[in-house]
Specification:
415 residues, alpha+beta, Aminopeptidase, five-stranded antiparallel β-sheet, 10 helices, 17 strands, elongated
Length: 415
Amino acid sequence: MKQNPFTSTSFVTVWSKHFNGSKLSKSFDFISGVQFLKHSILPLYINIGKNLTKGIFYELHTSITDYKGKTFLIYDVPDYFNVRELARDNPSSLRLKKVFQYQGFLMDISSYTNQDEYINAQFSSKNRREFRSNQRRLEECFNIKYSFLHGEINESDFIEVFDSFYSLLNKRFAGKQVNYHHLSPEKWNYYKELVYVMLQEKKASLLIIYRDDTPIGVTLNFHSEAILFETITVFDPDYYKFSVGKTSIIKLLEWCFENNYSISDFSKGDFDYKHKWSNLIYDFNYHILYDSKSIISTLTANLVETFFKTKLYLRRKKVNELYRKAKFLLQGKPEESFEYEAIKFEKLDGFEANSGHYLPIDYNIETYSYLQQYVYTFAFANPEPIDNIKVYKTSENAKEYVISGSKKAQRITLK
């Protein structure tokens, strides 16, 4: 890999500023393509970026011996990168331990001519009709536009987009009631600076789906010369019926074909949509390089190997999920969180709003924002421009509302 974004000068500089006090990274002649920092306690060198990369590629030069007496940890080496490993008959004392940590998922599109050909190979005709229908309904109900930011951008425009990105992620994970580590101030400030810098260099991009001027879906990507790394993706859960996430993937596929990319990599994280869209599942391994003739180096390598095998065991027991839920609860619920839930839906025939029994309300204001998901679900089932759809509150029941389009209406009762 000639242009790995996760070992670029910009990545190394920004990551080091936020997580290593801008200390100089260290390079070694026996290994190229990766830089290291020294562990604060252990006799261990760790790759710059740690687990905030989506894949590290490196090359070894075993005739050079500046690895002597040292141990090296390299996070996230995808097996499809085809890193040339040490031969069994390698005469040097350098040795490698590989510790499996995650499965990764990608779309290898190198043998296809366009996105339709790839989608036809992955999905049934029924699924394909569903994709087209969902996108058509989205565009029929709302003023939708698609933007792919990849290159120069005004800083104030970038900040506006990235703040919307944060708000969508915060809303999404508040709904799931789990802590999302990328939203911590430390990591988000890092991403904000990194993405702005790497956008200018075309090593990063943002796919944005707008409703009017408001983002309802954002995907952050990083770029090598032929691989798109889909890093963080989110859509507004109020629009879940419209499958905004699937439309995002289709738009990214279109871009990849138009720009001669061969791989769209979903990276690690085991989700159903990745299984459905991917045609290749691969392993993420952690690589531990050590000097087998050094007792300290060997012991350190064994300790690191045991640590990550234990983490993998606990993750398979879903301890990490319990931790994220507990952390979310300890942080307290966001102020904008609402607990309303629909308990009854009723179709209304011949609905007339021109009586004192129904009071029109603006569901777009914060007071009634919890109604948006029900309005958009109604719009999905009865497609028409969203401005045609009105919401009314009944005078008798404070938790009873009517959603009315030009042809159909529905009463919902909340608790």
